[in-house]
Design goal:
The complex is a heterotetramer, with two copies of chain A (333 residues) and two copies of chain B (340 residues). Chain A has 333 residues and is α/β, with parallel strands linked by helices. Chain A folds into two domains: 3-187, Thiamin diphosphate (ThDP)-binding fold, Pyr/PP domains (Rossmann fold, 3-Layer(aba) Sandwich), CATH 3.40.50.970; 201-330, Rossmann fold (3-Layer(aba) Sandwich). In chain A, 38% of the residues lie in helices and 20% in strands. Chain B is an alpha/beta fold. Chain B has one domain (16-323): 3-Layer(aba) Sandwich (Rossmann fold), CATH 3.40.50. Helix content of chain B is 44%, strand content 11%. Chain B contains 13 helices and eight strands. In chain B, strand 3 (159-164), helix 7 (171-182) and strand 4 (187-193) form a beta-alpha-beta unit. In chain B, helix 2 (25-50) packs across helix 3 (65-72). Chain B is globular. In chain B, 62% of the residues are buried. Classes of the chains: A alpha/beta (333), B alpha/beta (340). At the A-C interface, helix 4, helix 6 and helix 10 of A face helix 4, helix 6 and helix 10 of C. The structure holds thiamine diphosphate (2 copies) and magnesium ion (2 copies). The site of one magnesium ion (MG) has 6 residues of chain D, from strand 5.
Chain lengths: 333, 340, 333, 340
C-alpha cells in the first residue's frame, strides 16, 4: 500500500487535499473550527479553502471548544459530515463532555438509532517550543472511550488516504496530525483513495526486532533503523496507523517473526497507548515467540518544557530509539 | 430583551383569554390530554419504581407539565426538540408512543432505545425528539449543531432546546447561546426553570432576578414567563419560534415553574419547606388549565374530566403492555457501538 | 496493614471520617462541590458536615464543573487544601482543562515554584442503573497526565487511610470512590492514620495465579478466589490501591511467585489501565517467570447500558473472574 | 451596570486631567517607565526572535501597554494578578525583574520558570504574579480559587484576573464570573480587549456592542473603558478594586485597545487592513501619555524622554545579561513534576 505516483506534497497538503476532494464530492462535508477561514487555520492547513467553499462550509467559530464539538456532534446527528478542527489537541480538554458523553455514546445509548459521522482533527505533539499546554499527545484518553475511533498517520500518503476514510466513516473519528509532520513531503496520488482504518503497515522489514511506532515516531524509527542497519541490526518498523480499531494481526505477526518488540510513542510512558500495545502483543500468539521483554520507549512523565533542549529530552529522539533498539536486540542473548 | 416579572397565578391572564378564543378546540384538548398523560406517566413511573420494578434513577417533572406542552404545542410536525434528564414531559408532548416510552423506562428491548438509555435518555429520532442528555447542560452544544444543520440545509424547521435553571450556570450554555446568536441559528433555548438545581435554589447560584436576563450577553430576546400557564407558554414560545424560523436567530425563554417531587429518588427535601411545596401544588398547572377551559366555555367539566380519564387509561394500558415486553440480551453489545 | 480495630463502618463513612478529621485539624482543608451542603452530597458522603463546619468550608457550588476545578486549583495554588467533589466521575469531562492544563502542569511549568495540594473526589463505576453518562471509570486518562496522582481504594480501611494521605499530599490527587463500595462495611480505626500512596497490598495470598485488581474488582476477585479455592485453585489478589505512583514491586513479586497474572478492572478493556499493568509486569523481573500470557478481564468496549442485565454484562462480575482465572490457571499447562 | 461607549482619543479626557493633579509625580513617572519598558521588552523579544535566538512562539502586546500598566498601578504591593498568553505587559507592570523575565523568555535556567515555561507562562509567585496560562480563558477559573482563598483567609488582598476579548466566549468565563459573583469574591475581571481573537474581530463572534454588557448575566458592575488612556484605565480599575476589597464582589472591566503586531509569528494579517493598523498606531498609548504629562505640566519633554531612555537601557541591559545565562539541564525532570 504505497503511493503509485511521483507527485510529492506535504503532509499538511495531503490533509487539505483529502478535505477539499471530499467537500467537492459531498455538500454535507464541512470544516468548522477557530480561524479556519481567512487565517487558513493556525498551521495553514485550510489555506485557500474559504475561497473555494465560502464561509458557510469553512466555518470560523468563536473560541468555544465545547460548542464547536457540540456543533459538530449535532450536525453529524442530523446526517451531515462535519470535520471539526481543534487548534491544538490540548484544547480537546474543553470538548471532552461533548465528545465523550454525547458524540461517542449517542448511538449506543439511543439503541443504535442514530449515527455520528464526524472527524475531529487535532494537531498534536511537541517540538515547536510551545510548552506544556500546546504540545500534548492525548490519544490514550480516546482509545479508552468506546464509540470513538483514533487515527494517527505518519506520512503524507497515509494522511490523505486515512482522512478520506475517516470522513466517510459513520462514527466520530479522532484524527491526530503531528505538528512536526506537517512539512514532511512524500508521494501522494492526486486522485482520491481510501486506506482502511484498521490496517497497520509494515513500514520497513527486518528480522531482529520490531518497533511498533505511530505518528512522529515512525520517521524517527525509520531513521533509527537505517543507523542500526549499519551495525547489522535489522529492524522491522510497524505503524498501526489507526490506534482504534487496532490491526493486532499485523503487529503480532511481526513480533512473532522478530521475537522482540519495542513500542515507541511520544505521549508520557505511564498510561500511554504503549501499555495497550504491550497488552495485546502479550495476549496474542506472539507471546510464545518473545525472546525478550517488550520494551516501551515513550515520552518522559513530565509536562512538555519550553526550553528546546529540555523539550527534545522529554520525548524519544532518533538517538534514543537507536539506543533502546540496540539494547533490546541484545537482551537475553 | 423583554424581562417579565411573572405573577404565577391560578387563572388565565388576558392574553391567554385571547388564545383560548383563537386556538381550535382540538388543539386545546390535545394540550390538556398531553398534560394529563405526563402527570399520569410520572405517577405510574414513580409507582413502578417504588414497587421495585425499575432499576436506576429517574427525575419526575410533576408540576411542570404546562412548560413542556405549551412549548411543544407551538411546533410543526417536522420541527425538532432536544432535551434533558427531566424529559418525560417533552417526550410525551412531542408525540411519543406511550407504550414504547414506558418500555424504555422499564429497560425493555422494544423501548425507544432498546433498553440501553432508560428514563434519562429517551430519544425518538424519527419523531423529532433528538434525545435527552443526563449531563446538565450537555444538550445545549449539540443543539447548536442540529440547528446549524437545519440552517445549512435551508429547511424551515426549528429546534427547541430544553435545559434546567441549573444548567444555565454551565459553560456550555454560554458558549452555545453565543455561537447560535452569532450565526442566527433556528433554535429556541428553553429553560425549564423549576427554581432548583437539586438542592440549590436559583437565588443561591446566581445574582440576577431572572434567567432571561442572560439573553443580554448574546444580544438575543429573553423572556421570563409563568411556566404554569400553558397558554402563556404557548404564546411566548410561538413568538420565539417565528423569530427563529424567519432567520432572526435564537431566543431564551425562561419558563418558571416548580417541581413537586424530590430531585430524584435520593432526595430528602431538606432544602425546602413542605409549605413551599404545598403552595405550588395549589398552583397545579393541570387543574388551572382545566378551570380556564371550563371558565372560558371551551369545554364542560365533564369533557375536561373525560380527557383526563382517557389519559389515565392510556398510561395504564401502556404500562401493562410494556411490562410484558422482553428484556434485551447482552450478546454482541460491542457490535452496537459503532455504525457500519 | 490491616485494621487493628473491631469498629466497623462503611466505605462512605470512612471517606467522610477522613475528611472530618482532617478538617478539624487544619483550617486550610475544605470541601467544595455541588450539593455537598444541605443535601449532604448526591450519595450522602458529606451528610452532617455542613452542621459541623458551616457553609464556608462545606461549600455548595453552582453546577459549573470547570469553575469548581478552577476554584480548587486556585485555592491550592494559594496553599489551601481543597477537596473538590465531582458528583459523578463522568462530569470530570467538564473539568479537564483546569485539571490537566492548570492543576497538573503549574508546578513544572512555573519551574517548581508552586505546588497544588488538592484532592478530586470522584464517584465512579456502574451498577446503579444510571446508564452511559453516570457510570464511567475514567482513571486511564489521569494516569497518562504527569502531575496528577490516582488513588482507587477498595475497602473502608483503605479509603480512610488513603484519603488522609491524599489530603496531606502536596499534589493534585484523583480519589476514585466506587459507588457500589459506598455501603461496604469493614473495620476502620477511629483515630487518624495514613496509608502511603505507592503501596500495593496483597489482599489474599495464593500460589497458582495473581489477580491484579483495584476498586470494585477487589471484593469481586476475593469472592472469586473463595470459589476457586474450593476447586483447589489458590489465587493471590493484589490491589495496587494507588494507580499512580504504582507500587510495581509488590505486583511483580506476586506474579514472579505465581507465574500467572490476570488483570481485572471495570473500565473498558481497550486502552484501560490494564494495559499499563501488563506493560509494567512484562518489563519487570516477573517476565522471566511467566508461565502463561498476561490476561485482562475488563469492561466490555461499550458505553454502560441502562438495563440491569446489560449493565451487569458490561463489566466483570464474580462469575466472570472465576471463569477467567480458572482458564488462566490451566493455560499452557 | 455601566456601559460606556468609549471614544478612543489621543488627549486626556476631563477625569484623567483630575488624576493628573491627584496622583504623585513619582507614580505617574512609574507608569510611564513601565509602559516604555513593556514596549522595549517586546521590541527586543521580537528582534531576538527574528534573529533566531528564541525557539517557540510569542504574543506581543505592543499597543496595549496602557491597559496593563493603568490597571496594575491601582494595586497594593500585596495584591495579586493572574493573566494569559499575551502577558509580558502584566508581568512588567507587576514589577518583574527584567533580566529574570528576559531569561525566561530565552528559556534559561535562571529565568522565572527555569526555562520550563517560556513567554506564554511567566509567573513570579513571590511577586504576586500567579502566572500566565496559554489556554484561552484558562486562568479565569483558577482566579476564582485564588480569590476564594483570599476571602476565606480574611485578607485585604484582591486579585486582578486578565484575559482577552476572545476568552469571553469560553464557557469557563461564564462559570467563573457567575461563581465569583455568587460568592462576592475579591477579584476584578479585566478583559484586555484588543478587538481580535486571532483573526476574529469581536463583532464576528458576539452579537453585542461591548463586552462589559456581559456583566449583566452575573449581576455585577461592568464598564468599557478607553484602554489606550492609562489614566482612564487607572480610574475604572481603582473603583473596581474598591468594590472588590470592600466585600462587594467582582466587576468586569473591558479595556478597549488594539494589538499592533500579528497574533503570533505565524500571522499574515489577512483579516485586517494596513490602514486600520496605522490608525491605531496614531493612537499610541505611550506617545499619548507622554503628551498628557507634558501638556499637564507634570514633566518636561526632556524628563519624559529621559524616562523612555532609562527604560530602553534597562531592557538592553536585561537582554544582554540574560543571553549569557546558562541553559537548564534535562536530567531529573521527572523529579520536578510532583511536590515533595
Ligand atoms: C454536568 C452535570 N453536573 C451535575 C449533574 C448532577 N445533576 C443531575 S440533575 C442536577 C440538577 C440540575 O438542575 P437543573 O438544570 O435546574 O434541572 P432540574 O433537575 O431542576 O430539572 C444535577 C446537579 C449532572 N447530571 N451533570
Ligand atoms: C482554549 C484555547 N483555544 C484556542 C487557543 C489558540 N489561541 C491562542 S490565543 C488565541 C486568541 C485569543 O484571543 P483573545 O482572548 O482575544 O486574546 P488575544 O490573543 O487577542 O490577546 C487563540 C485562538 C488557545 N490557546 N486556547
Ligand atoms: Mg431546576
Ligand atoms: Mg483579543
Amino acid at each position: 500500500m504505497t503511493a503509485n505516483t511521483t507527485r510529492e506534497i506535504t503532509y499538511l497538503e495531503a490533509v487539505r487535499e483529502a478535505m477539499v476532494q471530499e467537500m467537492r464530492l459531498d455538500q454535507e462535508v464541512f470544516l468548522i473550527g477557530e480561524d479556519v477561514g481567512t487565517y487558513g487555520g493556525a498551521f495553514g492547513v485550510s489555506k485557500g479553502m474559504l475561497e473555494e467553499f465560502g464561509p458557510e462550509r469553512i466555518r470560523d467559530t468563536p473560541i468555544s471548544e465545547a460548542a464547536i464539538a457540540g456543533a459538530a456532534t449535532g450536525a453529524a446527528l442530523m446526517g451531515m459530515r462535519p470535520i471539526m478542527e481543534i487548534m491544538f489537541m490540548d484544547f480537546l480538554t474543553i470538548s471532552m463532555n461533548q465528545l465523550v458523553n454525547a458524540a461517542a455514546k449517542m448511538r449506543f445509548m439511543f439503541g443504535g438509532k442514530c449515527s455520528i459521522p464526524m472527524v475531529i482533527r487535532a494537531p498534536s505533539g511537541s517540538g515547536t517550543g510551545a510548552a506544556a499546554q500546546h504540545s500534548q499527545s492525548l490519544e490514550a484518553w480516546f482509545v479508552n472511550v468506546p464509540g470513538i475511533k483514533v487515527v494517527a498517520p505518519s506520512s503524507p500518503y497515509d494522511a490523505k488516504g486515512l482522512l478520506v476514510t475517516a470522513i466517510r466513516d459513520n462514527n466520530p473519528v479522532l484524527f491526530m496530525e503531528h505538528k512536526l509532520l506537517y512539512r514532511m513531503k512524500g508521494p501522494v496520488p492526486e486522485e482520491s483513495y481510501r486506506i482502511p482504518l484498521q490496517s497497520a503497515e509494515v513500514k520497513r522489514e527486518g528480522r531482529d526486532l520490531t518497533i511498533v511506532a505511530y505518528s512522529i515516531m515512525v520517521p524517527r524509527a525509520l531513521e533509527a533503523a537505517e543507523k542500526l542497519a549499519v551495525e547489522g541490526i535489522e529492524v522491522e518498523v510497524v505503524d498501526p496507523r489507526c490506534l482504534k480499531p487496532l490491526d493486532v494481526d499485523t503487529i503480532a505477526r511481526s513480533v512473532s517473526k522478530t521475537g522482540r518488540a519495542l513500542i515507541a510513542h511520544e505521549a508520557p510512558v505511564t498510561g500511554g497507548f504503549g501499555g495497550e500495545l504491550a497488552a495485546v502483543i502479550v495476549a496474542s500468539e506472539a507471546f510464545d515467540y518473545l525472546d525478550a521483554p517488550i520494551r516501551r520507549l515513550a515520552g518522559r512523565d513530565v509536562p512538555i518544557p519550553y526550553n528546546r533542549t529540555l523539550e527534545r529530552a522529554a520525548v524519544p529522539q532518533v538517538e534514543d530509539i537507536v539506543a533502546a533498539a540496540r539494547a533490546l536486540a541484545q537482551e537475553g542473548k | 430583551m423583554t424581562v417579565l416579572t411573572p405573577e404565577i397565578e391560578t387563572a388565565a391572564p388576558p392574553s391567554s383569554q385571547r388564545l383560548l378564543k383563537e386556538l381550535p378546540r382540538e388543539k386545546l384538548a390535545w394540550m390538556l390530554q398531553r398534560m394529563c398523560e405526563i402527570r399520569y406517566f410520572e405517577e405510574k413511573a414513580e409507582d413502578l419504581y417504588i414497587r421495585g420494578q425499575v432499576h436506576g434513577t429517574m427525575h419526575l417533572s410533576i408540576g411542570q407539565e404546562a412548560a413542556s406542552v405549551g412549548s411543544i404545542a407551538t411546533l410543526r410536525p417536522e420541527d425538532l426538540i432536544i432535551h434533558h434528564h427531566r424529559g418525560h414531559g417533552h417526550t410525551i408532548a412531542k408525540g411519543a408512543n406511550l407504550t414504547t416510552m414506558m418500555a424504555e423506562f422499564l429497560g425493555k428491548e422494544p423501548g425507544y432505545c432498546r433498553g440501553r438509555g432508560g428514563s434519562m435518555h429517551i430519544a425518538d429520532i424519527p419523531g423529532g425528539n433528538l434525545g435527552a442528555t443526563g449531563v446538565v447542560g450537555g444538550g445545549i452544544p449539540t443543539a447548536v449543531g442540529i440547528a446549524l444543520a437545519l440552517q445549512m440545509r435551508r429547511t424551515d424547521q426549528i429546534l427547541l432546546s430544553y435545559f434546567g435553571d441549573g444548567a444555565t450556570n454551565e459553560g456550555e450554555f454560554h458558549e452555545s447561546l453565543n455561537m447560535a446568536s452569532t450565526w442566527k441559528l433556528p433554535v429556541v433555548f428553553i429553560c425549564d426553570n423549576n427554581q432548583y438545581g437539586m438542592s440549590m435554589h436559583v437565588t443561591k447560584v446566581m445574582n440576577i432576578q431572572h434567567i432571561s436576563e442572560r439573553a443580554a450577553s448574546y444580544g438575543i430576546p429573553g423572556q421570563s414567563v409563568d411556566g404554569n400557564d400553558v397558554l402563556a407558554v404557548y404564546e411566548a414560545v410561538l413568538a420565539a419560534d417565528e423569530h427563529a424560523r424567519s432567520g432572526q436567530g435564537p431566543s431564551l425563554i425562561d419558563l418558571m415553574s416548580y417541581r413537586w417531587r424530590g430531585h430524584s429518588k435520593s432526595d430528602r427535601n431538606l432544602y425546602r419547606t413542605p409549605q413551599e411545596i404545598d403552595e405550588w401544588k395549589h398552583k397545579c398547572p393541570i387543574r388551572r388549565f382545566k378551570q380556564v377551559l371550563v371558565d372560558g366555555g371551551v369545554m364542560t367539566r365533564d369533557e375536561v374530566e373525560g380527557i383526563d380519564q382517557t389519559a389515565k387509561t392510556a398510561i395504564d394500558h401502556a404500562a401493562e403492555e410494556a411490562l410484558t415486553f422482553p428484556e434485551p440480551s447482552p450478546e454482541n453489545m460491542e457490535a452496537e457501538v459503532y455504525a457500519p
